[in-house]
Amino acid sequence: MKKVLIVDDSISVARQLQKIIAGSGAYEVVGHAKNGAEAIKMNQAEDPEIICMDMNMPVMDGLTALRTISVMDKEVKVVMVTSLGGVGDKFTEALKNGAKNVISKPFEAGKVLDILGAL
Predict the structure, then answer these.
(1) CATH, residue 88
(2) Partners of 79 in the β-ladder
(3) Number of domains in the chain
(4) Which residues pair with 77 in a beta bridge?
(5) Residues 70, 95: contact at Cβ < 8 Å?
(6) How far apart are the first and last CA of the chain?
(7) FRET pair for 74, CA 20 to 30 Å: which of 10, 40, 51, 98?
(8) CB distance 35 to 57 below 8 Å
(9) Residue 39: which of 76, 85, 2, 89 has the closest Cα?
(10) At CA 78, angle to CA 38 and CA 62, rounded to 5?
């Protein structure tokens, strides 16, 4: 079972994503961070294989955390979560900084699992 860390400042969004991911039976959700700074600490503590990280959060946004995590941990696969529909500069910047893909809100369970399965 692959370990997944969910990073989102919205508890309801994180719960929704956790339900989809853990419900598949192929993944174990090892934690929930509320911002990028927590994500960096939890990545070191929990050593997940996959991080699903929101782009827009208080304290430290997802792109800033992605840059740090991709330098510190070459193995982890980061998927950005966005309500921007995955378009624009932030999406391109995320991919340049090491993100493997983008999951759009609102979530479609099949699409989320397809993206994670392709990693």
Answers:
(1) 3.40.50.2300
(2) 52, 101
(3) 1
(4) 50
(5) no
(6) 14
(7) 10
(8) yes
(9) 76
(10) 45
Contact assessment for residue 39 and residue 11, using Cβ atoms and an 8 Å cutoff: no
Q: Is the pTM of this model over 0.85?
A: yes
Q: What is the pLDDT of residues 62-95, one digit of tens each?
A: 999 999 999 999 999 999 998 865 456 778 889 9
| Cis amide leading into 106 (omega within 30) | yes
The pLDDT, as a whole number, for residue 88 is 64
Dump strand ranges (E) for the chain. 2-7, 27-33, 50-54, 77-82, 101-104
pLDDT score for 87: 55
Which domain, by its residues, includes 29? 2-117
Give the residue carrying structure tokens 């956790």: 18
As a whole number, the mean pLDDT across the chain is: 94
**What does the block give as tokens for 96?**
């340049």
For 107, the token pair is: 């979530």
Residue indicated by tokens 């983008």:
102
Contact, 44 vs 38, CB < 8 A? no
Cα 38 to Cα 51: distance, rounded to the nearest angstrom: 12
